């Protein structure tokens, strides 16, 4: 019986490993990225209540968590390439305590940028609009509120810049 169990486990392990494609790391494809700016109520760090649907112009939504190291790296590379985002308004949105969101904005020196806002939202609107997603997830929307590109998980800045 133990021999049969060992053979079964070995076969499962081999099949699992062979199913993994290691030839190229792929960006996550969006599960359910809203094709238009989503119905996503937010409260900015300045206390203003807005909804993503009402945003005008070119918009980038960055869903993040302040304690996420991938999110921290994404914030650093965005800061290093701020000029590329000049035509966009960026909203970093998190389901986290407001003080952590504010500290993140300050730590990554994005809090004083005229076109970058930080906001809180509840978890349910994120799940309703995007399903369960990795952080950071970045969504680029045109000035007609149409989805241009979705990146789920940490994305190389070069790939993001291609779609601006």
| SSE ordering | HEEEHEHEHEEH
Largest sheet: 7 strands, mixed
**Tertiary shape:** globular
CATH topology: Glutaredoxin
Provide the fold topology.
Blueprint: H1 2-18, E1 41-44, E2 49-51, E3 58-64, H2 69-80, E4 88-94, H3 98-107, E5 116-120, H4 123-130, E6 137-141, E7 147-152, H5 157-162
How would you characterize this protein structure?
- There is one protein chain.
- By secondary structure, the chain is α/β, with parallel strands linked by helices.
- The chain has one domain: Glutaredoxin, CATH 3.40.30.
- The protein has 5 helices and 7 strands.
- Strands 2-1-5-4-3-6-7 form a 7-stranded mixed sheet, covered by helices on one side.
- Strand 1 (41-44) and strand 2 form a beta hairpin.
- The radius of gyration is 19 Å and the shape is globular.
- Residues 1-30 have low confidence and may be disordered.
Can I get a quick summary?
This protein is of the alpha/beta class and 164 residues long. The chain has five helices and seven strands; from the N terminus they run H-E-E-E-H-E-H-E-H-E-E-H. The chain has one domain: Glutaredoxin.
Key words describing this protein structure:
Glutaredoxin; 7-stranded mixed sheet; alpha/beta; about 160 residues; globular
């Amino acid at each position: 019986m133990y021999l049969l169990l060992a053979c079964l486990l070995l076969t499962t392990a081999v099949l699992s490993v062979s199913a993994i494609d290691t030839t190229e790391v792929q960006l996550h494809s969006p599960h359910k990225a809203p094709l238009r700016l989503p119905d996503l109520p937010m409260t900015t760090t300045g206390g203003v209540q807005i909804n993503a649907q009402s945003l005008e112009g070119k918009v980038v939504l960055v869903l993040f968590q302040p304690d996420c190291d991938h999110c921290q790296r994404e914030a650093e590379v965005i800061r290093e390439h701020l000029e590329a985002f000049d035509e966009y308004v960026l909203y970093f949105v998190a389901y986290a305590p407001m003080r952590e969101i504010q500290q993140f904005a300050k730590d990554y020196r994005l809090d004083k940028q005229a076109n970058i806002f930080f906001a809180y939202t509840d978890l349910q609107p994120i799940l309703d609009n995007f399903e369960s997603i990795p952080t950071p997830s970045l969504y680029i929307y045109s000035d007609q509120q149409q989805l241009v590109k979705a990146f789920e998980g940490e994305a190389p800045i070069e790939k993001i810049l291609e779609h601006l």
